[in-house]
Amino acid sequence: MSSAPLPSRNPVSPENLLNPLPLYEELRQSDPVYWSEDLHAWVLTRHDDVSACFRDSRFSANRVKMFEMQGGALGPDLLADYLAVARRQMLMKDGADHIRMRRQTMAAFTPEALSSWRPTIYRTIETLVGQVQDQGRMDLVKDISYRFPPLVIAEVLGIPSEDLERFRAWSEPLAEFTGPGLGVDMVEIARQANKATKELFDYLVRHIAKLREHPGQDALSQILTSHKGNIGPMDEGDLAVTSTLLLTAGHLTTTDQLSNGIYDLLTHPDQLQLLRDDPGLLQSAVDEMMRFSPAVPFFHRIVAEDLELRGKSLRKGDLVFLGMAAANRDPAVFPHPDRFDITRGHLHSRHMTFGHGPHHCLGAGLARRELEIAVEVILRRLPGLRLDEENAPRLKYHSLVFRGFEQLPVKW
């Protein structure tokens, strides 16, 4: 009896981008620290390795040189504005600089702040669902997922609602550049990402200057006026840089995570019914959605010094892809990892979807709150929700970094 053929080890081959799970399993078992010639990078797929690397200072978050090399290969100064912002981002900082910026930002993400946003989140999703409730069908992405997170984050950050379309227009090229798909024009994508970065940053500098003069109850005003011990408030330039991340990453990842999670519920009707019968499982269900189909399957790190990992020699400057989606399917941590099970309980807390360690996603609390409230409202107000069998779902991102739906037709 012949065994099934092993998958191609190219992580960005069309078949692996469409269905990466066989590759994750094969690498976890036979080559968990894998050098990919296709990526010119190491690929890590075991939970303990991914978790350890997120905590290990020898794996640097500063990936600016990677983008500088990419920009240099595409054309002189093509990414000048993008790189100027990237160099200042908290996401690219290590050590003391990262700690300082994170502490300056934490005022907007305290438990008290999260509780204060609940009415905004509820009002937003109730309004969106109410607009489609009588239609009997919709595209979940277009009608709910794509609209919901930016409406919330804009109100949280004090951004006028009339400017939302501009933020969507800025977010898309930035996401496309961070996680490009196959067969794309990288020069044009880089040009659009650079343009979007400059326009978004300039807008935020002006917006934050107004808040400095007339602070409100929004998160940016809280960050501007907060003091943590001997750490003063964040200056306007750094706050504008941080806000670009909150607006773009918070919008795109939560959009995809909501669509992915609803799809998983609808394709596992036993779990959907379990949640309908026991709403107390909501938090556990949302954690399982994030474990099972994370919106960000991989994240990058740079090796800061020569080191050994599972017998492999990693050299300073090497690029590393930390496989959060692969770690989330590791049977050493999650029994029956390919089973969608909303009753996993405490095991949920070990998923890698929000990262781990010092760079654990700053907006994780907000994203979790948005997802829990959105799922609760959608299921309550659309009790017959199911996939629309006449219109097939369509994946949006064919890349390693982002995964979500371009179209998710549903009916009730």
TrEMBL record:
InterPro entries the record matches: Cyt_P450, Cyt_P450_B, Cyt_P450_CS, Cyt_P450_sf
Against Pfam families, the record matches this protein to: p450 (PF00067)
Q: Which keywords, in A-to-Z order, does the entry hold?
A: Heme, Iron, Metal-binding, Monooxygenase, Oxidoreductase
Under Gene3D superfamilies, the record lists:
Cytochrome P450
Q: Name one GO molecular function term.
A: monooxygenase activity
Which CDD domains does this UniProt record tie to the protein?
CYP164-like
Homology family: Belongs to the cytochrome P450 family.
- Protein name per the record: Cytochrome P450 hydroxylase
Its ancestry begins with: Bacteria, Pseudomonadati, Myxococcota, Myxococcia, Myxococcales
